[in-house]
Amino acid sequence: MAVHERPILVIGDKNYSSWSMRPWLALTAGGIDFEEVHVKLRTEATKATILRHSPSGKVPALKLGEVVIPESLAICEWAAENAVAAPLLPADPVARAVCRAVSAEMHAGFATLRQECPMDVLARHHGHPISDACRSDISRIEGIWSHVRRDYGADGPYLFGAWSIADAMFGPVVSRFVTYGPHLVREAADYVAAASHHPAYQAWVAGARHQVATGL
Ligand SMILES: N[C@@H](CCC(=O)N[C@@H](CS)C(=O)NCC(=O)O)C(=O)O
């Protein structure tokens, strides 16, 4: 289906909505012109407002005319297919498959990390207690990052060298590590430093700061 209207991304609060951050980073890094609609989370009106945009009742949702695409990973894939600034998937087919695999693992997993260390972009909680189960999630993430950086990351500082949808999917994990400061192996710490300085990531943080400062 041809899309003629400007895409609209419906998102939650930039300080808290980790699922919203992922496709927002992908659309932004891909240079896609899109409109942003913000739904304030954790209010009595939140659910009804989201349902006016998406039958899934969740953000993010990408509106393409009358078509609504929910689910962060699907929107990141759409961003990869429509990117104009830079490709968002590796050119090599094997690297591309691994990129999709680690993105899907992020989408489906790491529930303990997500629960114990909720995204709170502007906060700093270094010294926050980390349970064994949470440490196990962090160890698997360190393993993924070290593996893909070593095997596919030679051409740049991001997971697959050039920035990709895997960096979008792990963006909120980078933010959690900045907020909670768990000890990380060197490769993971280096990646956090690079990913947290990417222009799209920085623009999201600036947006979170603006929303908090203005109470929007
Ligand atoms: N699997 C979904 C998860 C979306 C999700 O859980 N979004 C949360 C915000 S981060 C939400 O909409 N919460 C509002 C609610 O449930 O009322 C995705 O990947 O997009």
Automatic annotation (TrEMBL):
GO biological process: glutathione metabolic process; L-phenylalanine catabolic process
Domain GST N-terminal: 7-87
Protein name, UniProt field: Glutathione S-transferase
GO molecular function list: glutathione transferase activity; maleylacetoacetate isomerase activity
Organism this protein belongs to: Zavarzinia compransoris
InterPro entries (UniProt xref): Glutathione-S-Trfase_C_sf, Glutathione_S-Trfase, Glutathione_S-Trfase_N, Thioredoxin-like_sf
Alphabetized Gene3D superfamilies for the sequence: 1.20.1050.10, Glutaredoxin
The entry's keywords: Transferase
